[in-house]
Structure formats: structure tokens, C-alpha cells
């Protein structure tokens, strides 16, 4: 049974925290307004800062199914919206021929009916027959082609999809829509106008430390402070790809699994593959930057003790 939408921003922020999602007030306000106004929410930011997690947490928080459409280059309607079950249609044609009732008009009505329709994520999201309106996550929209983005305009404006053979299907209750973009290309103004917008930046030390505490409660406090300080310092370096919060959590989980209590040059070198994902960035640390970063981290983390 679906849960009621929180009645205030503070209540929503607390509910998110109970699901181990640390949100600042700006993001909580954007989510709250999207829920109250029933408007899609467009979240942009660097990879790994928690955009996708918003949709997952909302689905859990509101007890609604999560429907995820992972975008990629070449994504089309047959994958994202619907297609006809051609195998079943061919079988039905043969059965109709065998029964002597393969008339053109009757065949078209039978073959292009909902029974032969394969519903893909976007159509599933507005189909009210499957229970409460879901949370629809359109993930990494910037990876899809511009043509597909244009197709979304009808869905995001009126929460409906037009199928030529069946007509227009409109949602009885609009889904909760979260769209994410890593901004590898610009999303068109027409789509932005249909959405509420929020940019999720890399977190401050305090916020990232709170995230680590929420997601990795077993981590020693000193180690958690050092890890967060190390990642914060890395983001000031000229790296090919700065680590996101997701990488911070991966790293702290690896260190806890190795029963580490504090960062050392040796353990940093051994576990860099969980934090940095490009060879050039690993070499950058190995060639001298690691010692300097660790020294600054030690001073910074000590100030929080």
C-alpha cells in the first residue's frame, strides 16, 4: 500500500534521512515541490553524487514500484515505450487462417489489440492497471539521442502516450518522474520547461561525512573522517575524473572489509582501484601527490577530532 507524501519540507528531509539519504534543504525543497505539484524533477550533476538514488529512495519511502529507463545512444520507442508481439501475431494469423476467419478488418482489430502489446518502461509508468502510480526514473537522459528527448515532451506535459493503432493512453494518476543527467550534452529547453530543476553538487565535508556515517555505520569514526578528507582533497586536484560520493562509499566499504582503522600510504596504494577508475589518475597519485594529500588529510581530519 502506497504511503502518503510528506506534508512539509522538514518532514520529507527527515524521511529521506531515515532511508539513509542525506539531503540538504535545497534538494529536499525541489523534491517536495515535485511531489506536491506533480511535476517531473530534472536532476543534474557529476556522476556519483546521488541523483539516481533520489528515485530509489522515493520509491521505498512512498511504497511505490520503481520503473527505471536507462538511457543510451540509439534508444528508441520499441525499447522505451512499446512494441507489438510479432511472434504472437503471426501465430494468431495462422490460427485465424486455419479457422477460416482471416478477414482483413477483423484481423486488424484482433492483432492490434492490447493483448498483443508489449509494454516497455514509459508505457508501464502510465498504465494504471498495475496498481499505484510508480516512480519513473529516466536515468542519464543526456546519453540518449535528441530525437528520443523530443518524444518525451508529450509524456512529460500530459502524462500520455499516443499509439497509432490504439489511440492515446493517458495516466489516471501521473507517475512521480525523476530525470537525471550527467550533462555530457545539454538537455533541450523544451524539456527543461516541463520540469522542476536542481543541481546536485559534490558535498561539503560535513555532508559527505554524514553520508558515510549513514551508509557505513560500521566504519571507525577516525577512518571515516580521513576518507572523507582524502576524497575532498582529491577533488581539488587536476584529475581526469574526480571521485563522486559513490566512490567514497565504495572505498570506505573496502577499508572496513580490510579491517583498517586509519589511512596509511600502503593501504591507500592497495585500494586506489575502488576510488579512482582511470589509470592516469592512479599514476598521478603514485608519482608524488599521495604523500602531499595524506599529509593535508591528517592535519584536516585531526582538527575534527
For the terminal residues, how far apart are their CA atoms? Answer: 45 Å
Gyration radius from CA atoms, angstroms: 24 Å
User: What share of the residues lie within helices?
Assistant: 40-55%
Kindly report the CATH topology of the largest domain: Rossmann fold
Quick one: biggest sheet? Answer: 5 strands, parallel
Roughly what fraction of the amino acids lie in strands? 5-15%
* Domain module count: 2
Main sheet strand line-up? 2-5-8-1-9
Low-confidence stretches: none
The overall pLDDT, averaged over residues, is: 89
Text of the CATH class of the largest domain: Alpha Beta
| Order of helix and strand elements from N to C terminus | HHEHEHEHHEHEHEEEHEHHHHH
- Put simply, the count of helices is 14
**Known CATH architecture of the largest domain:** 3-Layer(aba) Sandwich
Report the structural category.
Answer: alpha/beta
Shape descriptor reads: elongated
Strand elements, count: 9
Tell me the CATH superfamily of the largest domain. Answer: P-loop containing nucleotide triphosphate hydrolases
Top keywords for this entry?
13% strand; Rossmann fold; 305 residues; 2 domains
What would your notes on this structure say?
- With 305 residues, the chain is of the alpha/beta class.
- It has 2 domains: 9-73 and 129-200, Rossmann fold; 205-302.
- It contains 14 helices and 9 strands.
- The chain has helices at 9-18, 25-37, 51-61, 77-80, 86-99, 104-111, 121-126, 146-158, 189-193, 205-215, 221-234, 245-257, 265-271, 279-302, and strands spanning 41-45, 66-70, 82-84, 117-119, 135-139, 160-163, 167-170, 176-181, 196-200.
- It has a 5-stranded parallel sheet. A two-stranded antiparallel ribbon has the order 3-4.
- Helix 11 crosses helix 14.
- The longest helix has 24 residues, at 279-302.
- The mean pLDDT is 89.
Amino acid at each position: 500500500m502506497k504511503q502518503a507524501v510528506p506534508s512539509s519540507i522538514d518532514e520529507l528531509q527527515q524521511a529521506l534521512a531515515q532511508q539513509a539519504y542525506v539531503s540538504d534543504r535545497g534538494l529536499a525543497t525541489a523534491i517536495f515541490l515535485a511531489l506536491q505539484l506533480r511535476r517531473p524533477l530534472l536532476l543534474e550533476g557529476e556522476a556519483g553524487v546521488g541523483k539516481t538514488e533520489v528515485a530509489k529512495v522515493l520509491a521505498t519511502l512512498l511504497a511505490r514500484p520503481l520503473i527505471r529507463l536507462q538511457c543510451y545512444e540509439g534508444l528508441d520507442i520499441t525499447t522505451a515505450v512499446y512494441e507489438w508481439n510479432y511472434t504472437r501475431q503471426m501465430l494468431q494469423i495462422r490460427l485465424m487462417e486455419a479457422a477460416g476467419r482471416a478477414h482483413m478488418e477483423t484481423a486488424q482489430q484482433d492483432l492490434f489489440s492490447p493483448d498483443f502489446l508489449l509494454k516497455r518502461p514509459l508505457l508501464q509508468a502510465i498504465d494504471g492497471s498495475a496498481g499505484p502510480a510508480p516512480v519513473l526514473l529516466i536515468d542519464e537522459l543526456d546519453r540518449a539521442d535528441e530525437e528520443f528527448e523530443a518524444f518525451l515532451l508529450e509524456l512529460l506535459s500530459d502524462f500520455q502516450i499516443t499509439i497509432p493503432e490504439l489511440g492515446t493512453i493517458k495516466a489516471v494518476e501521473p507517475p512521480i518522474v525523476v530525470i537525471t543527467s550527467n550533462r555530457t550534452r545539454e538537455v533541450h529547453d523544451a524539456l527543461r520547461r516541463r520540469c522542476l530543476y536542481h543541481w546536485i553538487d559534490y558535498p561539503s565535508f560535513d555532508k559527505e561525512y554524514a553520508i558515510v556515517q549513514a551508509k557505513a555505520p560500521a566504519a571507525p569514526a577516525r577512518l571515516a573522517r580521513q576518507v572523507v578528507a582524502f576524497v575532498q582533497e582529491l577533488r581539488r586536484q587536476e584529475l581526469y575524473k574526480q571521485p563522486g560520493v559513490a566512490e567514497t562509499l565504495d572505498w570506505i566499504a573496502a577499508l572496513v572489509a580490510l579491517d583498517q582503522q586509519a589511512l596509511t600510504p600502503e593501504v591507500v596504494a592497495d585500494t586506489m582501484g575502488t576510488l579512482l577508475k582511470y589509470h592516469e589518475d592512479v599514476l598521478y597519485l603514485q608519482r608524488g601527490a599521495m604523500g602531499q594529500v595524506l599529509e593535508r588529510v591528517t592535519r584536516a581530519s585531526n582538527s575534527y577530532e
